[in-house]
Amino acid sequence: MEQKLAKVTDVAQKSFDFVVVGPSVSGCTIASRLSENPNVSVALLEAGNSHFDDPLVSVPDGWMQQVFDPEYDWVFRTTTQEKVVNNITTPSGGPDKSFFWSRGKGLGGSSALNFLFWTRPQREEIDAVEALGNPGWNWERYFAAAKRAETFLPSPANNFPEFRELYNKDSVGHSGPVPISFCRTVSGAELYFQKALEAHGVKTIDDGLGGSLTGTFKAAANIDPRTGTRSTAATGYIVPALDRPNLKVLTAAYVNRVLTKKEDDDVVATGVEFEHGGNVHVVHAAKEVILCASTVKSPHILELSGIGNRNVLEPLGIPVQVDLPSVGENLQDHLIFTSCVFKMKEEHGFVTSETITLPEVQAKLRSIYGEAAGPLSLACTGVTFLPLHTFSDRADELIEKVEKRIEQNADKLSPGLKEQYELQLKLLKDKNVPDLEIVVFPVNVHPAGPPKPHIGLLPSIGHPFSRGTIHASSSDPKVQPTIDPNYLAEEIDIDILVESAKFIRKVTQDGPWKDVSEAELIPGANITTDEQLHEFVKTNVSTTWHSSGTCSLAPKEKGGVVDTHLKVYGTKNIRVADLSILPLLTVVHTQATTYGIAEQAADIIKADHSI
Ligand SMILES: Cc1cc2nc3c(=O)[nH]c(=O)nc-3n(C[C@H](O)[C@H](O)[C@H](O)COP(=O)(O)OP(=O)(O)OC[C@H]3O[C@@H](n4cnc5c(N)ncnc54)[C@H](O)[C@@H]3O)c2cc1C
């Protein structure tokens, strides 16, 4: 397969209709869709390597070894965060006031190292994007586009059939490039959490991909059940397209900046500058440059190209092409409370990242799967989505508090943020819209020692009110941008995490969960009061790697970077089409959302050029 990739001489100094930066979830989708037309030429540039036939990519739980390895992971790092401590997702596993932001490097972007959850947003969340002033960016169009990315396939035998695989065939795609299914190996603890939730009034739902998420269910996964391997944007969209003469995919090509010229009042992209093998090259774009380099790198590349806030660019000596202050603003991320861990009773045979290494567990799994192909590996799959009123009896009080704060600060909010907050409040008040996710996490992130079944029940904020920034800190493209997620700047975010931790305690202290668990290891018996829990939660959080918003889709005067055609304001032919355009983060894991954005982007670009 490697020989089907482009050589630098196929791309450098050549001209293509479209130059796509970053074979991410979005970049692979768009490059593939555009090059379906043989009359359209496309160059797709990736900074990392191809990782074809690499077991760390193809084996579903290979992510555990990819994370923090610079061959696969950009290993970005945030600024020191004032209000929180990350105590897990650091290379040392020890506490750190800055956060390590893993991002996939290589064909497929983060789809090649993510945790495989395949989830779709709530209808109202996507409709909120349209309500921000983006006609056409609504649930109906998103849902149709998102389903085009996937082919839902029935699962083979799994190790815990009582944890049911429920779905609605009208809510999934049946002929898209990315095979999805339910994963084969689950921990088993998901079932007991589900039962415990049911005992507290939370419904098990049978249509988790249909736009109505409130409840608990087994999530689908980007796993091809025919091979037991990970489906990535590259395996789905690019590998089958590599024989197209009009598509050139170049790896190890680090894009420095978009090259532009002025035409009337607009900036026009003429191509991009990239480094390959220690040399700097140019590839020309006859029609467009499309940035799909992620929430971290797309705003960075724009700023390196002179498109951004004058006050950021001028001190760095970057000549301003378009003064667009919203580039790199409006950063949102799901913060997750990582330290709610239970020791489970051994007699139930729960499979975790620790116990799956035991020969007796492997033998049992093989006996269940028989001759079914593929490696043995574990995936996370137990998900629960809850509206604030479901998990907190302080819901009305918290809503009132945040309402007051917005009112008091209305004059100080950046353009468009008041409108965003009003929509977030509407979601928070809606008793059918989830504001929180709890995942059952069978990966032991805490106690060392002999393999034991440890299970985390980890809640994450769905619609954070805190906003951060990502900005260039140097004119040197190799110096990574300054990432400041500004975690927990808004009190409502920590309130939600604390309320969710209390809810998890309530659900697990007796009944079906208590029956199968030995003890709550962490936070544990010493953390009892609300104040203690508040402090504990703040010092035990992680990113979930779901950041969005730094090239927001919104009217320019409302903090937008791109318009409804995903064109960067002030430019004629530069688009951004990755997760960075999502102006309001949705409660779910973000890959299926990104595929949906990219499929819509491809439609728009084709229509704009009548191709
Ligand atoms: C560790 C981790 C776990 C996750 N788990 C899940 C999950 O379980 N479920 C889920 O739905 N989502 C998950 N996500 C999130 C999901 O994968 C991302 O939201 C999604 O991939 C975003 O897609 P994107 O197109 O915006 O960018 P990405 O997929 O991140 O891709 C960006 C691409 O651009 C390339 N690039 C960047 N800069 C340059 C440059 N200068 N030159 C050339 N190329 C460049 C990168 O190498 C990469 O290939 C996870 C993410 C991570 C990092």
TrEMBL record:
Entry annotated with the keyword Flavoprotein: yes
Keywords of the record: FAD, Flavoprotein, Oxidoreductase, Signal
GO-annotated molecular function: flavin adenine dinucleotide binding; oxidoreductase activity, acting on CH-OH group of donors
Signal peptide: none
Domain Glucose-methanol-choline oxidoreductase N-terminal: 104-127, 294-308
Positions that bind FAD: V255, W545, H546
Cofactor(s) in the UniProt record: FAD
Coiled-coil regions listed in the entry: none
Residues binding substrate: C380
Active site: H546 (proton donor), H589 (proton acceptor)
PROSITE patterns on file: GMC_OXRED_1, GMC_OXRED_2, PROKAR_LIPOPROTEIN
Family designation: Belongs to the GMC oxidoreductase family.
Name of the protein in its database record: GMC oxidoreductase
Organism: Dichomitus squalens
